[in-house]
Design a protein that fits this description.
10 strands; Alpha-Beta Plaits; elongated; alpha+beta; five-stranded antiparallel β-sheet; three-stranded antiparallel β-sheet; 339 residues
Length: 339
Amino acid sequence: MTIGEITKALLILIAGFIIARLVRRYLLNLSRSTKYVWIINEDTASTLHNLIVVITLVYAFDALGVTSFKIGGVNISNLLTAFLVFYFSYLLAKKSKDYMIMRSSTKNLPEVQVKAKLFYYTLVTLAFFIALNIAGFTGRLTTLLAAAGITGIVLGFASQTVVSNFISGIFMYFDKPLRIGDPVEVAGYSGIVHDIRILSTRIRTWDGLLVRIPNEKLFNSEIKNLQKYPARRVDIIVGIAYKEDAGKAIDVIKKTLDEMPYVLAEPEPLVFVDNLGDNSVNIAVRAWVPSEKWFDVRTQIVQRVKEALDREGIEIPFPQRVNWFAEPIRIKVEGEGES
């Protein structure tokens, strides 16, 4: 190591640190006046500052001849280059993901979030393997895995579920049976889709629990999307006593539905005698309502139909049982004692 090499390294360090500080200061000033705050901000300024500093150190070490040394048979220059490639790719993937989410509309946000995450993980994974190849680890890892055959088999079985969940997540993205924010019934759980990730999907149940479902299980399960379409049907059964006029009850129920603003006129509500039950004449009520209002409207229909039938004096019976005896039953009633 000569004096000239040391001087050259010092000059590179000084120039690099000055450039890094100037770039950081310029971006900070620019962030106060630009409309592209999503990319030109304090975070970006610090990231570029650190990146320039790292590159400066690499060139300074190279001027000193340090990068020609080897660690575990790998040149330091290759290690530093691999680190820079992975670090820069990671920053690019993260910024791109944030940009895609920020630029999307509220309506398309769930779908864009899945796309952004898929792009992010794909780019980071590719960058990782490229960095390994640059560092010269690819051949070594292949040799080690080939030598440790049993370990490879164990790792293969261990990662089988992970790979299956990953592939199922990709298939789920193209199939699109659900989106973030959709109310669903899946794998024995019911609630709102909280998040969709590469390996799993998270459901927030109606009672406030967070359930993580592996994508493989989700993909192979029956999925009921309760809000896929703008309208959903409310189905209820109303039982009236056999002595009541079924036609009158149907008219009362239809009038009640007509007075409710969230009950859709098209398709027209259906009210009809469905079957003759053990204790009542069962009338089916089928009305279409907006999907996002389904639960609230259903509870209102049940309450208002009950109130309307009560006002008209139409009896909603409770379960009754008639006992028949083959032989007449004689009942002896003993009178009270003489007063």
